[in-house]
Design brief:
single chain, 28-stranded parallel beta sheet, 17-stranded parallel beta sheet, elongated
Length: about 550
């Protein structure tokens, strides 16, 4: 068969396939170019279809030219914004369908509101894609950059949104439904002032999910929630949040689901709770992220009112400047789990230098370090130098380290209060922690099993240099073995003290025999056995 005949057969076969309903190849989008005619351009921009009117072009204003281009391009073409600054006098209302707006780059293609108008509005458009340009200097009562009332898909890539100012909510972007997706973008100095409706200095939504990656949020502000982002569902990956501010959630507020991975939060502030993050609803998951120098009245970095998982993350130098939880506050949830993380040098002006946890089903710490955290109670009740815990059903600590934490009240490293259930500690180190009153390392409301732990050079001002126990879970003293208590001291009673009248002397004797004690000291109670251990219980 000749090559020509073979080609003819192939052509006939292809025609037959298409006639039978086989899909045609996707057609590439065409492009409509918009340019200002007083700028010297080359290539397609030099002969742009839509030009602004400076004496040569057909359009009266920058926004008229872009508006006409968008209307002609809906669903079929992209609008390419040639380099230059385009100043709007009125917002552009996006048509129903899909709009694609592309610039030469965020530093080259700039749309400005001129300090007097919102830039884009949508009430029913199917999708709006924006890439490689800057939106700046918009002013409105709500969402000065993009108002996306019923837009199902809003996607930004390589976009800068800066210096937006609103009075009622969501300074940069507001979307009611659908999804807002942001990648490789920057949000700077967007401000939501005197908010009465929605938060989100940069992005706010009512029902829409927000997905952010590889982006930067800096200097954004909301008088309500989420200095940078406020939405029901927020997912953040490989992004940076710096110097954002809100009443709740200095950087991000999530009302249902929060997922943060590989991100940095620094110097964010909240007037009330959650210097960096504020999460409620279904779940909060924090992985491989860093929280540094954030502050709030309480929960210097993270406030969570939901099931929470923190993994391979660092919280350092965060501050609760009035109440509790220098870094983290977790309340009213089924569980809190912290794994392979570091919480160091955090401070609370009341209690819980690193963490305050309250009304949680199960708290689990695994392979985590708490070092140099401080709780200085304004009224002398700074309990829990590292962790203050209240009403916890079960508290479990595995292979973790507590070192040089300081409490101005009780529980130099950890205090469990308020009818908390058993505290279980396994293969962990408590070193050089101190408390002004009771429990230099640990004050346990209810002691559970403790195995193979080390308590080294902890001190208290009154009772229990290493450990003070209110009550003991039935039968656990026989399971608590292999613990080492070395050079712990209490100024008044018991380098190691059990404050439980129900514990019988025979159980205490068996517990002492299964553990190791060396050089523990009680300054006043020097006559007790084991150099400062206090069995049986002190009542």
């Amino acid at each position: 068969m000749t090559r020509r005949i073979r080609s003819l057969f192939v052509s006939i076969a292809l025609v037959g396939l298409f006639a039978a309903g086989a899909p045609l190849p996707a057609r590439a989008l065409s492009t409509i170019y918009v340019a200002d005619s007083d700028v010297s351009y080359s290539g397609a921009c030099a002969s742009a279809t839509y030009r602004t009117d400076d004496g040569a072009g057909p359009y009266d204003s920058d926004d008229d030219a872009i508006r006409a281009a968008i209307s002609a391009a809906v669903n079929t073409s992209s609008v390419y914004l040639c380099r230059g600054t385009y100043t709007f006098t009125d917002p552009i209302f996006l048509p129903t369908g899909t709009t694609r707006l592309v610039g030469e780059g965020a530093t080259k293609s700039i749309i400005s509101g001129g300090g007097g108008t919102r830039l884009f509005e949508s009430n029913g458009s199917e999708a709006f894609f924006v890439s490689n340009l800057t939106l700046t200097n918009g002013v409105s009562n709500w969402a000065a950059a993009i108002w996306a009332e019923d837009t199902s898909t809003l996607t930004l890539s390589g976009v800068t949104i800066s210096d937006m100012l609103v009075t009622n909510g969501s300074a940069g972007i507001f979307s009611r439904y659908g999804t807002v997706t942001v990648d490789k973008s920057t949000f700077v100095r967007n401000r939501d002032l005197e908010d009465t409706d929605w938060g989100g200095g940069a992005i706010g939504t009512e029902y829409a999910a927000v997905i952010v990656s590889n982006s930067t949020f800096s200097g954004n502000q909301s008088d309500a929630t989420g200095g940078a982002i406020s939405a029901p569902s927020v997912t953040v990956t490989n992004s940076t949040f710096t110097d954002n501010d809100a009443y709740y959630g200095g950087a991000v507020s999530a009302g249902s689901v929060l997922n943060v991975t590989g991100s940095l939060f620094s110097l964010n502030t909240a007037e009330y709770q959650g210097g960096a993050l504020y999460a409620t609803g279904v779940s909060a998951t924090i992985k491989s992220s860093t929280f540094r120098d954030n502050s709030a009245e309480s929960a210097g970095a993270l406030f969570s009112g939901t099931t929470t998982l923190i993994q391979t993350s660092e919280f350092s130098r965060n501050i609760a400047n009035q109440d509790f939880g220098g870094a983290v506050v977790a309340w009213n949830a089924a569980s809190l789990t912290v794994e392979n993380s570091k919480l160091n040098d955090n401070h609370s002006n009341n209690y819980g230098g690193a963490m305050n946890v309250n009304n949680i089903g199960t708290v689990t710490l695994r392979s985590t370090t708490f070092a140099r955290n401080t709780a200085y109670g304004n009224l002398g009740n700074g309990n829990g130098g590292a962790i203050d815990a209240c009403a916890i059903d079960l508290f479990k600590i595995y292979s973790s380290t507590f070192e040089k934490n300081v409490s101005n009240g009780s529980g130099g490293a950890l205090g469990t209060f308020c009818d908390s259930g058993p505290l279980l500690i396994d293969k962990s180190l408590f070193s050089q922690n101190s408390a002004v009153y009771v429990g230099g390392a640990v004050l346990a409301h209810t002691m559970g099993a403790m195995t193979k732990n080390r308590f080294l050079r902890n001190s208290s001002g009154v009772i229990g240099g290493a450990l003070a126990v209110d009550s003991v879970q039935s039968g656990v003293l026989t399971l608590s073995a292999g613990n080492t208590f070395t050079s712990n001291s209490a100024h008044q009673i018991g380098g190691v003290a059990f404050l439980c009248a129900s514990t019988v002397r025979s159980e205490m004797d068996r517990w002492v025999a299964k553990n190791s004690f060396s050089s523990n000291r009680s300054v006043i109670d020097r006559t007790k056995p084991n150099a400062g251990i206090l069995p049986p219980c002190f009542d």
